[in-house]
Design a protein that fits this description.
This protein has 253 residues and is of the alpha/beta class. Helices cover 39% and strands 15% of the residues. A 7-stranded parallel beta sheet has the order 3-2-1-4-5-6-7, with helices on both faces. Keywords: Oxidoreductase.
């Protein structure tokens, strides 16, 4: 039975990834700062002890260490780590506050690094270059095509894309491959809160893709599960846009 840890597993892309992995028979540890709203779906899937939740702030080193210490008390090995935790604070660069920048840097950039560092012994155990453990980081199209009004979020995602490549090379010899998905606009609670809140006029959602809709969490989870599959065991260091073609050419709106 395969096992995975998913950060940000309580909501949005992370939550749907947890559900999909449970459906496929994985054991999943969900790490989140929020209560595990996945609990009822997990029961419906008869996941039982295959679903476990730990409260974890991925931007806090002590919190990450405590979560992985708890996981290591149960198992010596995991097959995958999905780093999905993320936050967005929007506004012009001259207007956004240092506290907002610190939050995004801690969660979006430091968070995946701390989580991967905490998981390394679990990922390395029993893995090999022919049968590697997997790390998937949720980046953003914003890290490829930065957007006015969302500058620091885009900067943190561009930085985590860079870390993906470096980690992929540094960890390859120990049997770990590292890749990233770069979603466009996704129908998640985070996006809903941005659109329904007091969003600065400088920020505009990318909206529908050329395919005529925004992404659903399943669209991103599909690609994450591909990265975790045998079909992707030789795929390493990639950042794959999952945006329906939004970044392919400028669309005047």
């Amino acid at each position: 039975m395969k096992a995975a840890v998913v950060t940000g597993g309580g909501s949005g892309i992370g939550k749907r990834t947890v559900e999909r992995l449970l459906e496929e028979g994985w054991t999943v540890w969900s790490l989140d700062v929020c209560d595990p709203i996945i609990a009822e779906p997990a029961e419906a899937l008869s996941a039982g002890s295959r679903f476990r939740f730990h409260h974890c702030d991925v931007g806090d080193s002590d919190s990450v260490e405590a979560a992985f210490t708890a996981i290591k008390s149960v198992t010596r090995k995991i097959d995958a780590l999905v780093c999905s935790a993320g936050v967005a604070r929007v506004g012009l660069l001259e207007e956004i506050s240092p506290d907002q920048v610190d939050l995004m840097m801690d969660v979006n950039l430091k968070g995946p690094w701390l989580s991967i560092r905490g998981a390394l012994s679990l990922l390395r155990h029993g893995s090999s270059v022919s049968d590697p453990a997997r790390v998937v980081i949720v980046g953003s199209i914003g890290g490829i095509r930065p957007k006015m009004g969302n500058g620091f979020y885009s900067a943190t995602k561009a930085a985590v894309h860079a870390l993906t490549g470096v980690l992929a090379v540094e960890l390859a010899s120990s049997g770990i491959v590292v890749n990233a998905v770069a979603p466009g606009t996704v129908d998640t609670p985070m996006m809903s809160s941005l659109l329904q809140g007091s969003t600065p006029p400088s920020y505009r959602s990318s909206g529908e893709s050329p395919l005529g809709r925004i992404a659903q969490p399943d669209d991103i989870a599909d690609v994450i599960l591909f990265y975790l599959s045998d079909a992707a065991k030789y795929v390493n260091g990639t950042v794959l846009p999952v945006d329906g073609g939004t970044r392919a050419a400028f669309i005047k709106r």
